[in-house]
Amino acid sequence: MEAEIRAIEADIELLKKGKLTMQAEDETPQLQALRTENSKLKYQRMHLQRSLAAEEASGQDCMVSVIALLLDVFGQAIRTAFPALTDVPVAVTPSTKENFGDYQCNSAMNIVQLLKSQGQKMAPRQIAQSIVDSMPQNALVEKVEIAGPGFINIYLKKAFIASQLHGLLNKGVRPPRVGACKKVIVDMSSPNIAKEMHVGHLRSTIIGDSIARLYDFVGHNVLKLNHLGDWGTQFGMLITHLQQKFPNYLTESPPISDLQAFYKESKVRFDNEPDFKKLAYEAVVHLQNYEPNYVKAWKLICEVSSREFSKIYERLDIKNLESRGESFYQPLMAGMVKKLEEKIAAAGWYDPKVTRVEHIGFGVVLGEDK
Q: How many Å apart are CA 236 and CA 287, to the nearest integer?
């Protein structure tokens, strides 16, 4: 019996060193289990080495994501320790206190609930220990400690930290790897022509530019889109007021630098003078039909407003802002409305005998005939 035990132990040692070759039918259950476990560990090590190599290969342009590497390490450990569980959330966060290590893995609490749903009962600390025991070899983690009900405190290797600091000092802050470059559109600012920006526009401008800069920093193709309010009924008011107050506007540049005051004047007249209101509505129709004199008046008003907006954007250091106002989409509306009518009719939703659909220049009005 003792000789048999010694023989098995010798075989195990040889197997650990990769020097034992046996036929599958000659292996003991212990050897088979150890061989299987060894294969899993080799696969995990290879996967980790590839992840680290990919990070290092992109090190000239990108910074290593410590969180991403730790998620990979502990994700593998959890899958090894609990192969029957699927889609286990891996929770790794920076430690809140220095004595808790550099990072913490708090997945044990979630795994308790997952096991419980399968009729299994296991203490969080026991789960944490299983995760620790299943951790693959890596160049990242120096040691781990189980604390409290099942938290895993993670201490990084000083050599790894030193290498990251060395890269930071030599190459500066670089973006993380985020995968393929994508087209990103940030809809921001979007003020109304002839009106002052209010706090909502400024908020959208500042937050939108911050988001755009972050996407640009990590390598995406960013379009900052400024959807100006430059079309609609208010331009009928403004154009009519311009024509009446400055009848020579086609040949002499009108002094309308204070557009806010100019807008208020036209609004008062629109609300109180029926004849002016009628002319304003007619001016909208002329503008929608792109009649040259009305288009020129519209452009004059837009240019004055755009110059004022540019001053604000310059103070806020907003650059490369692409302005596409409501007027940009105006030529596309007729074709779009036609397509919608055809598709809705084909689907049986639209019957002209029952539902009235009218298209006007600045939108679609739907009304039910009772």
A: 8
